[in-house]
Amino acid sequence: MESTDPHRYDDMLDLPHHVSSTRPHMSRADRAAQFSPFAALTGFGAAIRETGRLTGERLVPEEDVRRELDERLRLLKDRIRTCPSASFTYFLPDEKKEGGAYVTVVGNVKKIREFEGIVVLTDGTEIPVGEIIEIEME
User: Fold this and answer.
1) Cβ neighbours of residue 57 under 8 Å, at least 6 residues apart?
2) Mapping DSSP to helix (H, G, I), strand (E, B) and coil, where does residue 11 land?
3) Which of 82, 99, 121, 125 has minimal CB crowding within 10 Å?
């Protein structure tokens, strides 16, 4: 039967610390690294965060809003030589998953590529006309 004496190892407490004559002393940081957690599923945490990241849904503007947007685009096209300033709110699809976000960009219109349905600002930003839900002009 095993002894339950709480003092059975007291004689070892005062012994000097062992120092190896064949192995170099390990630094505290190296010793701690032996017990650091092992990430067996590398990248799994990032995948979980990406899945949990919220995206918005694309809105479909009403017909009267669409007509108003078309009228504002026509006005911008008529003033294109002066590089008119405008604010565009449009849907930017997410590159990694379903959905996206609405962003607002303010800039000067350089050109409108009607065939491709793109508004190009002087800073090079390209805005798809079909994604625009609001245009504010000065």
Assistant:
1) 99
2) helix
3) 82
| 78 token code pair | 């008529």
User: How many helices (H) does the chain have, and how many strands (E)?
Assistant: 4, 5
The pTM of this model reads: 0.60
b/e burial code for range 14-33 (CB count within 10 A of at least 16 → b): eeeeeeeeeeeeeeeeeeee
Q: Could you give the strand order of the β-sheet that contains 85-93, starting from the edge strand earlier in sequence?
A: 126-128, 118-121, 100-113, 85-93, 132-137
